[in-house]
Amino acid sequence: MTEELLWLILGWLLGVVAGLLPGIHANTISFLLLGFAANTGQPDKWAYVVVGMNIVQAFVDFIPNIFLGLPDSEAFASLLPGHRFLAKGKGLYAVRLGIIGALSGSLLAALLFPLFAGFLAKALDFVEAIIPLALGLVLVSLVAGERDWKKRGQAVAVIALAGGFGLLTLPSSAFADPLFPAITGLFGVAGLLNGLRGENRVPEQLDGISPLKPKNLLEGGVLGSLAAGIVALLPAIGPGEASYLLMKLFKKTSASLYLIIVGCINAANLLFSFLFLYLLGKTRTGAAAALERLGLLDAPTLVAVTGASLVSAAAGAWLCLWLAKAAAKKISQVNYRSLNAGVICFLGAIVFLLQGLPGLLVLVVGTAIGLVPLAFGVRRAHAMSYLMVPTLAYYLGFPG
Q1: pLDDT of res. 208
Q2: What is the average per-residue pLDDT within 300-306?
Q3: Which one, of 2, 356, 373, lies nearest residue 153 by Cα?
Q4: Residue 312 pLDDT level (bands cut at 50, 70, 90)
Q5: Backbone region of residue 281 per phi and psi (left: phi > 0; alpha: psi in -120 to 50; beta: other values)
Q6: What are the pLDDT digits (tens) for 313-358?
Q7: CA 343, CA 64: separation in Å to the nearest integer?
Q8: Distance between CA atoms of residues 119 and 123, nearest Å
Q9: Chain-centre distance for alpha carbon 245
Q10: Quick check: helix, strand or coil at residue 387?
């Protein structure tokens, strides 16, 4: 038990690094670790590292996502929910909401394993058959959710740009791994560039704790777990899209609830992906793909991985809160534009080192497309058509 804990702690530390450093994802580190696993002959031990790292990153990711990329005050209406809290001096509170969601998502996912397994056994063929219809409905719903026809037309333009970009780059042999620089550009660098237009200082962050009603916690956990199931079953659907669609369906508008749901999805989706791997031998996340490469597909491994996930969730919550408190104290003291610019340069350097000029080209084009929804004032979620449109084309049988 002590040895397993040490391997988990190594995973937690790597998860903190992956969560805090933009461009360094747990998926990338997971596949680097596979080489070490092959040399040591201890795949079960490295599985603890992979699981611990991915779970902790699901928590720590909230820190850069909330504290970086805040635009100017005139753009308040189009801010992401986390940035709205940051602009009001409540960035730490926003992180707390994400932590609450991720903790509840981890626990509820583990409790829902039997129900989810039973559903998969009976309805998987049906789900696979309706994936094209489901993806199409998601795209239509995202467009319909814009406030007027002009915005809907602009949303269609974003979907066409990002979807076309995905169709061109994802199947191409000219790029080693276009997904990483494309997503980094569409959502990372584009948001950071938008943040350069903002104030040079972030408002002082408060450490107040606003109480949440048990009803709100339960509501966020249930909706988040339901959304996580959708994300696990439907390829190319991300946490943001699933959260938005469920909140629209149930007519919820709370930014606090949104952050809880996103946190819940991030953690629960990982656990559901482990179950998906065990039952069907299919991978839906990088962590599950790493476990598959390690050859760990049996029931004892699923039990061990689930237990390790719950322990890692507790550790991730504590680490994230501790780091977020430190970030909240310092963020109002730094030159915010310089911080955003530094992160942009870091991301560009990482992409160039890993993928050279082709990767840098994908990053630049992705960034340009990612700026379009920000300029139009429509939801950035439309840019996820980079994945959804090629996936839809694949299931409809188009060559690619």
Answers
A1: 66
A2: 90
A3: 373
A4: very high
A5: left
A6: 999 999 999 999 999 999 988 888 899 899 999 999 999 998 999 9
A7: 10
A8: 6
A9: 16
A10: helix
Sign of CA dihedral 349, 53, 235, 62: negative
- Residues 198, 381 contacting (CB under 8 angstroms): no
Task: Look up residue 66 and give its two tokens.
Answer: 């909330």
Best CA proximity match to 116, nearest among 261, 334, 284: 284
Retrieve residue 363's tokens.
């990053």
Q: Is the pTM of this model over 0.85?
A: yes
> Helix or strand or coil: residue 30?
helix
- HSE (CB half, 13 Å, CA atoms) of 110? 17
Using one digit for the tens of pLDDT, what is the confidence trace for 205-255? 887 666 677 777 788 888 888 888 888 888 888 887 888 888 888 888 788
HEC secondary structure over 95-115: HHHHHHHHHHHHHHHHHHHHH
Gyration radius of the chain's alpha carbons: 20
